[in-house]
Every structure is written in structure tokens, then in C-alpha cells.
Fold this sequence. Notes:
By secondary structure, the protein is an alpha+beta fold. 41% of the residues lie in helices and 15% in strands. β4 (35-38) and β5 form a beta hairpin.
Amino acid sequence: MTRQNFIPSDDNETKVAALIPLWDLCNHTNGMISTDFNPELSRSECLALTDFKKGEQLFIFYGPRTNAEFFIHNGFIPSGNVYDSYPIKLGISKCDPLKEKRILLLRKLGLENTQEFKLRIGENPIDGKLLAFLRIFNMSQDQLDHWVESNRSGDLEFIECALDVSLEKKSWCFLQTRLKLMLATYQTTLEEDKKLLEENKSSSNTVLAVKMRASEKEIIWNTLNWLEQHVQQ
């Protein structure tokens, strides 16, 4: 799987799996995709990411993949991956008496009543869609009525949206609780994982697995720290 790449078929109607010798030996580094297929010459062409010197290793950018995708498809986890994310699935309960109004407001924003979101690494771990879902999930009937009728429902996707303080705090606390429950499913803490990696006594496969779960926990903790700042405001 790590050596298959898709190129246009001879009739240019579909894409077919192909092996690209030499190019597929290149290791990954952060950057941008610099490889494309030239249909006129029927070949793959790769532009250098930087001014490589004679004798230097040639790197390419594998694409904006999460650590989980690198782990599964490439067998390694890159350090400092700015595209890393952690999935979280949220949904409106079938028993929620305000289910219909919540779903109606979600539809206005192009959201489903059950949806998977991504927590991202960095200063802004929560995107607008997740932010809006959390707010709608925690709204009272009066608040739902107001935003269903509003022609500015898109404002719910922005952190600056003027909302009742109690709703904001309720939304943050809900996500905090959910993330802490997710952390509790792991058999080790982030600190224990870091210690295992520092000791460097495990097999290469074990080290890779520990790095994978540690990167997940780092995203969760990064989000919890972000939430803590907003709860205190």
C-alpha cells in the first residue's frame, strides 16, 4: 500500500494504481506537494522542495496527513506535524425533547445531527463547525427559537459571537467532560508515555505505537488547556 500511487489511465478516463521507481524511495518532510503527472509526456514529474546539494538526501512532502494516517499507511509518525488532528463524534440524542429544533438549526449551518469533527493541534484546536454544534447542542428552547429565526445563524461559527455567558460556559464544560472521558479510556497517561519513550527500552513497533497514542493525548490536552482559558474568561 505504501508503494502504490494513482496515475491517469491510457484513455484518461480513470486512474490506475502504479509503481513509481526511485521516487517512491523518497522520505517525507514538511512542505508542499511538488509532484504531478505530465499527460503529454506520460510521466510523473517531481520538483525539488529546496535547493538540494550533491550527496544530500532528497525529501518530498507526502501530503497533509494526520499522524494516524502516517501510522497506518506509512509506518512512521513525523515530528511537528501541523496537519495532525484527533476525531471526535458528537450527536443529538433521540430522547432530547428539543431534538427537532436543534436539527433544524444544524441544517441551516450545513451540519448533521450526528457528525464527526476534528480537534487540531495548535493555538485554535476547535473549528467553526464544532463550535456551532457545541452551542446548538447546549441551547435552551428560547435560545433555539431565536437562532432558528435569525438570519445571522452563521455567527454561531465564530468565537466572537455574542451569546449568553451561561451558554458559552455550558458548551465549554460539556466538551471538557467529553474529552476527560476520552482520556480515561487510555491505560496510560501522557506523562507515562513520555517516560517510556525517554527510557528507549521497547521494540521499534512498541515505540511507534506509544508515539501514536501520545500524539492523540497531546491534542486532547491541548484542547483542554484551550477550553480552560475560555471557561475562566
